[in-house]
């Protein structure tokens, strides 16, 4: 039964990819002739407006054909989109509504809530000397396997495996695997000892 359901899902994903093939082709042509992502973003913004399960399948089909890697069993809810083609999305990832994802590598079985922002690093408008400029510098952040990210969280740095990022938290430093990240800026609490939870790293913004 499980195999049959998986086959059906793969078939529906293929149909969705075919339905969005003109948009995929336009994005591929853009990629072929330059490094711009204008067409890619326009297509993503268009598809993010389709509601329900059909909308999720259409978004999945498009991103399977345009992202660096996107699994066939990803769920992408209404209003959510990816900002860059270099993003990788693992198997069984669930992305809630109105979530924006920059450059990222998302592991398997990750759950991302609604209105979450995965930002492409902390210093996207600074050069190597720390000077703020107009050129944008993107850094891919990594979200480890089986991590949960709560509603409204803002993630600017890597998050390890089996982590929980609390709703509304702001992650500015790398979160170790197996920890709970809570607050703004987020502090990390070990999940393995709930009776005697200890703060693993008190985060303060770097100057």
Helices, strands, pairings?
Elements: H1 2-19, H2 21-33, H3 38-47, H4 52-64, E1 69-70, E2 75-76, E3 81-82, E4 88-89, E5 94-95, E6 100-101, E7 104-106, E8 111-112, E9 117-118, E10 141-143, E11 148-149, E12 154-155, E13 164-165, E14 170-171, E15 179-182, E16 187-190, E17 199-201
Parallel strand pairs: 1-4, 2-5, 3-6, 4-7, 5-8, 6-9, 7-10, 8-11, 9-12, 11-13, 12-14, 13-15
Antiparallel strand pairs: 15-16, 16-17
Report on this structure.
- The chain has four helices and 17 strands.
- With 207 residues, the chain is of the alpha/beta class.
- The chain has an eight-stranded mixed beta sheet.
- The chain starts with a helix and ends in a 6-residue tail after the last strand.
How far apart the termini lie comes to: 55 Å
The largest sheet has its strands arranged as 2-5-8-11-13-15-16-17
How much of the polypeptide forms β-strand, as a percent range? 15-25%
Radius of gyration: 18 Å
* Major sheet summary line: 8 strands, mixed
Helical content band: 25-40%
Order of helices and strands: HHHHEEEEEEEEEEEEEEEEE
Q: Stretches where pLDDT falls below 50 for ≥5 residues?
A: 193-207
Shape: globular
Query: What is the overall pLDDT average?
Result: 86
The class by helix and strand makeup works out as alpha/beta
Task: Tell me the number of helical segments per DSSP (H or I, 4 or more residues long).
Answer: 4
Extended strand count? 17
